[in-house]
């Protein structure tokens, strides 16, 4: 099988976008092969398709390998659409798995044609609540942020000795909940540093990601909820910095805006 692809780096959260039509039942098998070190290698794979909702002005649709919603893959696709159209940037409307409604991405050109600054507007989380996580190393306080397409648990990294034990404790505790994907966000408030661990149900993949857009948004939601106020913050992650703005009005989060650089690092053909 020969497939057209783009590979993007949104804060080093390496993302492969497949531009050719692939049967949906093959998504998982193909993604698992591509993510391996002996192939193109990335942290996640998305498949570009025609729109299914028929939304006017939507460019294309993104189907993630596990049917989840991925902020960085969506931002990557917006960058590629702008790159292919050789435009001056602007609003790129996309459909994506994990979301009911299309999403607007704001694309700005940078010095190179393959570099874009891409912002994305996100709806408020469905739920932000404090939870106590029980694991083999004891009890840890965290905050659960339920979003469309993914659920995150944000914890203070300084309170966790064995991170994988905590992850397995969270998986066990949330076992009965329907989640396309789960992120555990380890946050060091003193350093303003976020380390994302992300699991996708359909592919059963688990990665320490270099950057996680929805995880940064979840952290922003937690901080705004704690302060009960709007916040604007540059969140550091292993792969770079993402800017988060959370709008708090009338006692609740109204919207979240996430912004950062996306680099298109490769395009071409791959073989499976």
TrEMBL record:
InterPro entries: CntK-like. Pfam families: CntK_N. Gene3D superfamilies: Diaminopimelate Epimerase, Chain A, domain 1. This is Diaminopimelate epimerase. It comes from Tindallia californiensis.
């Amino acid at each position: 099988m020969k497939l057209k692809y783009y590979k993007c780096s949104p804060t080093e959260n390496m993302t492969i976008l497949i531009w050719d039509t692939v049967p949906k039942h093959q998504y998982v098998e193909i993604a698992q092969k591509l993510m391996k070190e002996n192939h193109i290698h990335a942290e996640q794979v998305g498949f570009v398709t025609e729109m299914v909702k028929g939304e006017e002005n939507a460019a294309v649709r993104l189907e993630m390998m596990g049917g989840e919603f991925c902020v960085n893959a969506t931002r990557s696709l917006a960058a590629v659409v702008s790159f292919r159209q050789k435009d001056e940037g602007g609003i790129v409307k996309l459909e994506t798995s994990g979301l009911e409604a299309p999403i607007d991405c704001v694309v700005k050109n940078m010095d190179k044609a393959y570099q874009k600054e891409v912002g994305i507007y996100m709806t408020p989380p469905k739920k932000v609540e404090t939870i106590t996580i029980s694991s083999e190393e004891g009890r840890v306080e965290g905050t659960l942020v339920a979003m469309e397409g993914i659920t995150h648990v944000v914890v203070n990294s300084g309170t966790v000795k064995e991170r994988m034990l905590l992850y397995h404790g969270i998986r066990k505790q949330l076992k009965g909940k329907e989640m396309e994907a789960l992120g555990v966000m380890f946050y060091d408030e003193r350093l303003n540093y976020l380390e994302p661990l992300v699991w996708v149900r359909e592919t059963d993949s688990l990665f320490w990601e270099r950057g996680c857009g929805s995880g940064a948004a979840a952290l922003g939601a937690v901080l705004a909820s704690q302060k009960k106020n709007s916040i604007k913050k540059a969140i550091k992650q292993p792969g770079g910095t993402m800017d988060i703005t959370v709008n708090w009005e009338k006692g609740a989060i109204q919207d979240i805006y996430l912004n950062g650089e996306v680099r298109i690092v490769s395009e071409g053909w791959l073989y499976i």
